[in-house]
Design brief:
18-stranded antiparallel β-barrel; mainly beta; about 0% helix; 2 helices; 23 strands; single chain; two-stranded antiparallel ribbon; globular
Length: about 450
């Protein structure tokens, strides 16, 4: 089928990822099944499931107009999710059978020359090239992009996270969350650091939720990344400054001031062996009873897809209730009681404990083989209150070991195996009890088709 407009070239593409997954002890306690689950984009996973993500896409345009559309369904394989006409069991409308198979990503633009205007909901980010501390997601937006000279690019977005109306009380601010961002990307043109990128960014988060989070926050950030000989350093620093307005859970106004940072370096000894190491820090709140919020809450932390420690089927980048992790982030911002000012699903806590992660690993490619092996150690920046409601926990959250090995049969098919283990530290026992000391395991076979 050709496009109606004869001046437009159209390309069809797609992919399917089929992930058989086996898990155990996701609650860190082999004696109970309570909370022995984790949440990914397809929904909850437990024991053994087969996650399936299928995408069908089209992109095209001409000299001034361009578009990209991707349809997606992400679900566990079973009859209710695949066989059209099935109407029993739960969920009733999911997978390939209903509206969940919709436009996952969209970007349509027009180039005026000095700048391009575009709108849609494809993945946009502020800092995915380094630590992913502030924002990366596919929320709807209206944006502008452009160049100033050969070495400086800029982006400015108006992003709508939520726009909900409570029809019971006719409340237009029931859950309104928008943010406004600007980002510069400067590539050093010459000298020793030729090709190294320096990228400052700013975002203003206007989070008007009349029942949970109600905060106005400015994020100031700077990231840098690039190849310098055999070294590829990456760094990021971010600062959140703002306030909440009459927190609905406490009736208190809070001043927000929090920081986060990331740094790593890859060392390319040869293409088959690239060791790397790095550190990530997010400030936690040391006193949940004062009128300050010192816990760093991202708009959407996107660490899962960052270059250094990112790995899609690692454990820590899923929502695991007993670990307190967010989907994508690898932090522990679900832990706490005080309303926060961000996070995926607007669920981060203002008294979250923060985190300190240090890690190391090595990766490489040889012919059609590729691999990545890494170790990460996690601590709380500020210890939360433990199971007894009085005593603070230990700061040792635990450690994760990940290994992924892949073989690319052709440009259309790759097969891989990803094994992940999280060994809980004393903080998990202090939060849930002495029996919560078993290692969580996840083994994933990856069958990846693309066209």
């Amino acid at each position: 089928m050709s496009p109606k407009s004869k001046d437009i070239n159209v390309e069809f593409f797609g992919s399917m990822k089929t992930y058989p997954i086996w898990t155990s002890n996701l609650n860190f306690n082999s004696d109970t099944r309570q909370n022995d689950i984790m949440l990914d984009e397809n929904g909850y996973l437990m024991d053994h499931d087969v996650r399936n993500e299928i995408r069908l896409g089209w992109k095209g345009g001409n000299d001034t107009f361009d578009f990209m559309v991707i349809l997606e369904a992400d679900f566990n394989l079973d009859k209710n999710n695949t066989d059209r006409g099935a109407s029993v069991g739960q969920p009733l409308d999911s997978g390939m059978t209903g509206e969940d198979f919709g436009v996952e990503k969209l970007d349509i633009g027009y180039n005026f020359g000095p700048f391009r205007i575009h709108s849609g909901w494809t993945t946009r980010w502020l800092d995915i090239k380094t630590g992913g501390l502030v924002y990366g997601d596919d929320h709807p937006y209206i944006g502008l992009t452009g160049n100033i000279g050969e070495n400086f690019k800029w982006e400015a977005d108006y992003t709508i996270v939520y726009d909900a109306i409570d029809t019971t009380f006719y409340d237009g601010n029931r859950l309104d969350w928008r943010f406004y961002s600007a980002k510069g990307i400067y590539t050093i043109p010459s000298g020793v650091a030729k090709g190294f990128v320096i990228s400052p960014f700013y975002a203003f988060s206007d989070n008007n939720d009349t029942q949970t989070n109600n905060a106005q926050v400015s994020y100031f950030g700077l990231e840098g990344y690039g190849k310098l000989g055999i070294f590829t350093p990456r760094f990021e620093i971010a600062y959140a400054d703002g306030s909440t307005d009459d927190d609905p859970t406490t009736g208190t106004d809070y001043d927000i001031s929090a920081m986060a940072a990331f740094a790593s370096v890859d060392i390319e000894v040869c293409p088959g062996f690239i060791p790397y190491f790095g550190i990530k820090w997010e400030e936690g709140d040391g006193d949940p009873n004062d009128d300050d919020i010192e816990a760093f809450n991202a708009i959407t932390d996107i660490t899962r897809y960052t270059p250094t420690f990112g790995m899609e089927n690692a454990l820590v980048y899923r929502y695991i209730p007993n670990l307190g992790t967010h989907l994508y982030s690898g932090n522990f911002n679900v832990i706490g009681e005080k309303s926060g000012y961000g996070g995926i699903g607007n669920s981060s806590k203002g008294d979250a404990p923060g985190m300190l992660m240090w890690g190391l690993g090595f990766k490489g490619k040889y012919d059609k083989w590729s691999y990545k092996v890494q170790y990460m150690s996690f601590q709380f920046d500020e210890e939360p209150i433990g199971l007894d409601g009085v005593t603070r926990t230990d700061d040792e959250v635990g450690q994760e070991f990940d290994v992924r090995v892949a073989y690319t049969f052709s440009k259309h098919f790759t097969m891989a195996n990803c094994f992940a283990a999280f060994d809980p530290g004393d903080a998990i026992q202090d939060l849930h009890g002495d029996d919560y000391d078993d290692t969580a395991l996840c083994n994933t076979i990856e069958l990846i088709w693309s066209w």
